[in-house]
Amino acid sequence: MFTKESNLFLMILLLISLGLIVVLLSGFATPLVLGAILATISYTPYKRLAEKLKGRKSLASLIVVIIIVLIIILPFFGVMTLLANEAFDLIRSIRIELGSDSPFATVTETLSKYLNIDARVFLENQILPNVNRLGTFISSQISQIISASGRLAIGFFLLVMTIFYLLRDGEQFATFLKRLSPLQKKDDALLFDIFRQTGKAVFVGNIISAIAQGLLGGLGFVIFGLPSPIFWGTVIAFISLIPLLGPYVISVPATILIFLTGKPFIALGFLLYNTLIVSTADNVIKPKLIGDKIKVHPLFILLAILGGLKMFGIIGIVYGPLVAAIFMSLVHTFEKNAERKKQQQLTEAKS
């Protein structure tokens, strides 16, 4: 049996070794965190696939990893590159349109009269510089990633391995963490369950719903022959996280602009598409994905994403919501624990 002094000594050694492990892995934090998130999100489909494959966990995990790489990871880099290019192209096209006798320039002059502002100056001084900064930011982030090709290859390998092993051995890992936890078994189970629900609400409920609206919004730009679909689809995805706003912030001004440029039928079709399909996607997707479980307010998610972008760069899109999920999990765990204690006190008082 350990004495008090030996326990203290072991604890000090444990903390030192933990610190060394953190230092060793700090350079690979991004692929490890991304892998853990993607494994958590895809765990339910993995379990169903493993059952259909008669318990062949390694094969099921490998299939899920391949699907994730093909439909999430590789397309992400492609979309980000196209987004940066479209941002710069949008600036050039707007400046060309403003300097000509195009319908866009006419609309700008009309808006200037009705709004009592110089819309041309507002575009040049306020909107275009911000679009340019966005394109430059995305382009620089992608360039940094691609330039470090060796590190990129190692990171990609770690990401894939993390997803594979967490899917295959996730249950054993969760059991190991519960054994290390100083909490009671019922509190451990509660915390894990709430974190799973909160993570699903944050990443699946809000972010995937916003991505779906962005994809549908960008598709609308393609269908109706409008420029910069990837750029505007990305903007719609971010705006979809803002309560009470959503895609209408983009679709309504775009509809008015299309109408004023002499295309009333395209304007009507674009408005109907956004009203019936894009704007209702959120109401269809969220209930199916998260049901009536824990819900996280979209404004909190938006602030977490913006804070993450400011602190960590483009990977903050993931880190911000992750921090939000951990925080909300702890809050809900304390809340549930307090409710349980109140119920126990009421039961004891009645008896």
TrEMBL record:
Localization: Membrane
Transmembrane parts of this sequence: 59-84, 148-167, 201-223, 230-250, 256-278, 299-327
Superkingdom, natural source: Bacteria
Protein name: AI-2E family transporter
Sorted UniProt keywords: Membrane, Transmembrane, Transmembrane helix
Native source organism of the sequence: Candidatus Harrisonbacteria bacterium CG10_big_fil_rev_8_21_14_0_10_42_17
Family, as annotated: Belongs to the autoinducer-2 exporter (AI-2E) (TC 2.A.86) family.
Bilayer topology term: Multi-pass membrane protein
GO cellular component, one term: membrane
Phylogenetic placement of the source organism: Bacteria, Candidatus Harrisoniibacteriota
Record-linked Pfam families: AI-2E_transport
